[in-house]
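SEQUENCE-TO-STRUCTURE ENTRY
===========================
What this section holds: a protein sequence and its matching fold, both as plain text.
Tokens: labelled as protein backbone structure tokens, with as many entries as the chain has residues.
Question of interest: how does this chain fold, as expressed in backbone structure tokens?
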Amino acid sequence: MAGKILLLRGSEKMTRSSSLISCRDVSYVTQEDVFLGTLTVKETLYFGARLRLPELAKTELHELVDETMAKMGLEECADSTIGNWHLRGISSGERRRLSIAVAILAQPQVLCLDEATTGLDSAASSFVVQALRNVARDGKIVVCSVHQPTDDVFRLFDDLLLISAGEVVYFGESHGAVKFFADSGFPCPIRRNPPDHFLRCIAPEFDQVLAALKQTQRLNFTELSAADGLLNGTTAETRATLVKKYKSSIFADTARKRIQELELLLTEKHDDNSSQSSSEVVAVKKRETMVEPILHTNTSLQLAHV
């Protein structure tokens, strides 16, 4: 999808075609968890379900709420008050999972999250990402930005997108990123967390830190440079090398092919829905249902430094 996105009667219109994307197909989870602190977890979900799905009966709403709580591991705290600055409530990890639960009530095809694990310990982060992976297994696309994930959390993601200064440094399968950096001349040091290494290569703030460290007389910069080759150049130079390497890599070719296939699928879907009768459209939708889980069962990690 490229170009402008126009809000049109609850739908988003793509400029390349006349296809419309319903706002219910996409959900966004903000970095901050904003709730009414005096409500319980179950009340919050029911309130959200009534707002998002007013056409459902009360029994159906309660069934949906129970199913969503089970999926996100919130059953034990269902009757617990969320809490606020003066009222003790659920933990930060449970609040984060509740935000995700509210977002998936309407069964969106795409779920976007801003810093899904910020402020959580390693155990809570792992729980949240595992819950997101369960959402992806249901045939949904999950895209989230994460800062400094642990190696265990990083392994739960299927795809990785690295962005720095508005340029794509890497986009492909997560397990292929380490090899890509090594082939580009920036291998991940032993005992260093791969995501930390990726950010170390593309975040310009490290240059400011090194400039301050060089002025410290106690720092043996020669020994430090020998241990970490990244200290011999600037982040801008490293980023430029990685971007150039990526553009000519098999990862970029694969990404372009996947985008072209998706654009073709969207075009065919629109053409079929426009030209065929209602009975034929039903058959098309049944055929698409077989394809979509393959395309949508994806959990993407975005380590972005813009």
Remarks:
- The longest helix spans residues 250-275.
- The CA atoms of residues 50 and 84 lie 23 Å apart.
- The beta strands are 5-8, 11-14, 20-22, 26-29, 110-113, 141-145, 159-164, 167-173, 298-305.
